[in-house]
Every structure is written in structure tokens, then in C-alpha cells.
Design brief:
homodimer; Alpha-Beta Plaits; 10-stranded mixed sheet; globular
Chain lengths: ~240, ~240
């Protein structure tokens, strides 16, 4: 068995997210496995670095799968891109170490949330940004972001109420920038809980508009309650940029 | 009557082009006039700088219309963007000189044709580029482009066989560049005939793949026959970038 590593780009707009959902399958994982099964005649299981929600995009999702195929990596790349829909592209196929696992070995993830905040909405990137005409106080947002950096229990930023595993995660960095009416928030961390980036985004946006005081962020973290944090920002503005190992 | 000038951005993918077509109206001009009629209660006629074909996009189409409205330019901008579909945005509304006419006064137009020529197709810009995995000889294309610069009778590059008006136009500049698998052709000229940019593009692509010798371009121009030139490149890779006055 060879262990293959894929780097995948997708427009999540019309998919029900990364993770396979039984037979009613409109997921990125499902589309990939279907093509891999057809290609190999095997029953392939593909492991993504993590799930992305319905409507969330990826510039660099990483996944691995094991197969007995005799095809080389170039042939696999071409086969996958021939049979996958145009809103999913495999950017590279590499042979990975036998024990490489895209989820278990992921060290850090970079997510980007983009808000189209210009006077007039952008036409060409409209499906990859969330539109808002609110006025944001960037200094307040940056101050709030500083409180989120480091290792914390992010239970307040998790939409899975029945989460039994640890909700402790480390956020390495949050970059907030504003150029030509585009507000960009870059999140780097060792792992993110269900909806965590979208709740972090919604909370920072609430700080930006003055609904939440940046100095309240430590209390919001300490509350360990979803109700304490801000809203869950919509999926279309979110992009999984890169996974590092 | 006040003469208003609009700067308009649109994703042409789902439209039948700029120019209004009677009642079965799925055109950019038609959408704009419908909203303007509703806004003013008048029967507005809007003049674009030129038609764009079905499927062609614009970053900066210019148009003008006359109205007795008492609304100011900010109010018009907001009204239009509230009622237009999201794939058409009005980027600015200005008061123009009474005799300003978007088509008759246009001095120069800049069109861009983009080919996605990378090993793997781009997901996010897929609707705004034409996909091709051919290998292009850029030096040959640039040599061919040099022959096209200047004032010529471009009848060979016009898909309107019944064209009765002059087919003489001036191409000021053609820039051909290649970065990260993206082939970009920028055309600047005082006016373009029906399908002219797409036929220029198809001809240059045919030169790039060796089907046409760059030294044959003067003969192709001289032939004054559509059959002499290359193919009509598909619309989705074409963008009207800017109109100058």
C-alpha cells in the first residue's frame, strides 16, 4: 500500500462541506472518494486535515489515502482533475511517509475570513467574501484579538454543545488588515473547534461595531459558554488557506 | 435634464450581453434600464460605451443616461445597487457634461483576455478565464502582435459579414504576459469591431501554438476576409477593463 498526500483547492459554495454524509453525498470528501474508487477499483478512505463546513472554501486542504494502485503521482493528478467537478481541483499528489495522516499529523492551520466592506460590493469575488457595510473599529478588534492569542479553553467559541473532548486549543496569531474596503482576518492555530473560526470572526466583528467591548474578551473566554461569544459569521467568507505539518 | 455617467462592473456569465434585446430581456442594459425606469418613473435610455457579447465581463463599462430626477448621485448609486442583481454593480455615478455620450465620446478602450494555462485549473477565477493546456510560444505571439499595432482595416477580424461601415480601427498597444500559468493579453485601441478582440486573441493563440506563422499576419490583415484569421476565442476569458474619454 502506498500512502498518497493530496493538496486540494475547492469552492465550497454548492457543497455540504468536506465530510462525507452517507448516501446523499454532496461533499468534497465524497466526490474525491468516488473518483478514487473508480480509479483504483478499491474502497478508498480519504482523511482530510479537518472538516470544512458547508459553504466554506479551501485554497490548500490536505488529505491522504492509501492504495495499491500502480499509477504514478502525475497520472493520479490528471485522473482526479479529469473526473472531479471544476469547483474541486487537486493541486498536487505526492507519495507520503507510510504513517503520514493528514488530520493527526497537522501542526498548524491557517484560515482566512474576508469581509467585503467597500462602498460598492465586488462582483468577481462576491462568492468568496461576506458583504457588510458596517463600520469597524480596527484598533478595538486588534486589542480583542490579542486576548485570544495563546492556549485557552475555547469552549465559548464552539458550536458543538455535546463536545466531550478537550476544547483547549492554541491560537498562534490573528492578523487583521484593511485594504481598499476589504477587511481580512487571518487565523493561525494548532486546531479549531466546530465553527470556532466563524465564532471568533463574529465576536471580533461585534467588537469592531462596538457591540462587545474588547476588554470583555477574557471574561468571554472564562465563561466557557457559547452564549457569551459573538455571532457565527456566515460560511462564504471563510477559506482554509494552508495546513502545515 | 441631467446627464449622468455610470461606471459599471459585471460578471457577464449568465447574461445575453450588454445590448437590450426587446422583451426577452436578459441583458445588462435591460437590467439597468428597468431599475432606472422604476427609480425615475421615466422611460430611460442608457448608452453604453459599446456592446459586450454574451458571457463577456466588465470591470469598467461606462454608460450615460439623461433624467429629470431630483435624486443626487449618491442616492442614485445606492438605489441602483439595491435593485440590481449582485452580478451587476454600479461603481460610481457622476454628473456628466450635457453633451457627454458614452459611445460617441469614447477615445480608447482596454480589453483583457485571460487564459488559465497552469498545470491545474484555478478554482476561484474559473468563470473569468478560458482554460487551455496548450503550450504557447510567447515570442511568436509578441511578433504577431507587433504587426497588428497601428491603423489597419481589420475586416479579417470582424464577425459581422454585413458590416457596411468602416472596419478601419487603430490598435494602440497589445501587451502579452505570462505569470504563474496565467497568460494575459491586454488590448488597447480606439474601438473594436464585432468579436474583434476575441478573433485577435484566437489568432494570437493560433500563432502561439504554431498553427499560424507570425510573419503571415500582414497577409491576414490584407486578405480582408474573416476566413484568413484565427478562431473566435470564447467569451468567458474576456473583460472590458476601462474606457477612456
Amino acid at each position: 500500500m502506498t500512502n498518497f498526500r493530496l493538496n486540494i483547492e475547492y469552492d465550497g459554495s454548492r457543497f455540504s462541506g468536506w465530510q462525507k454524509q452517507g448516501n446523499t453525498d454532496n461533499t468534497i470528501q465524497g466526490k474525491l472518494e468516488n473518483v478514487l474508487n473508480k480509479m483504483t477499483g478499491e474502497d478508498i478512505e480519504i482523511h482530510g486535515s479537518g472538516r470544512t463546513d458547508a459553504g466554506v472554501h479551501a485554497l490548500g486542504q490536505v488529505a491522504n489515502f492509501k492504495s495499491n494502485t500502480n499509477m504514478n503521482t502525475d497520472e493520479i493528478l490528471d485522473y482526479l482533475n479529469e473526473y472531479l467537478p471544476l469547483d474541486i481541483r487537486v493541486k498536487s499528489v505526492e507519495i507520503a511517509a507510510p504513517r503520514f495522516h493528514a488530520r493527526l499529523n497537522a501542526c498548524s492551520k491557517h484560515y482566512r475570513y474576508t469581509i467585503d466592506n467597500g462602498r460598492v460590493a465586488n462582483v468577481f469575488m462576491r462568492k468568496y467574501m461576506t458583504r457588510s457595510t458596517d463600520t469597524y473599529n480596527l484598533d478595538a478588534m486588534k486589542k480583542a484579538a490579542d486576548f485570544l492569542i495563546g492556549e485557552h479553553d475555547f469552549k465559548s467559541f464552539c458550536d458543538n454543545k455535546r463536545m466531550k473532548k478537550s476544547t483547549v486549543r492554541t491560537i498562534e496569531k490573528i492578523d487583521i488588515s484593511y485594504n481598499d474596503g476589504i477587511l481580512t482576518m487571518d487565523f493561525y492555530g494548532n486546531g479549531f473547534l466546530y465553527h470556532m473560526v466563524r465564532i471568533l470572526t463574529g465576536t471580533l466583528l461585534n467588537v469592531g461595531t462596538g457591540k462587545i467591548n474588547p476588554d470583555d474578551i477574557p471574561d468571554i473566554i472564562d465563561a466557557k459558554s457559547r452564549e457569551a461569544a459573538g455571532f457565527t459569521a456566515p460560511p462564504q467568507g471563510l477559506m482554509l488557506v494552508e495546513v502545515t505539518y
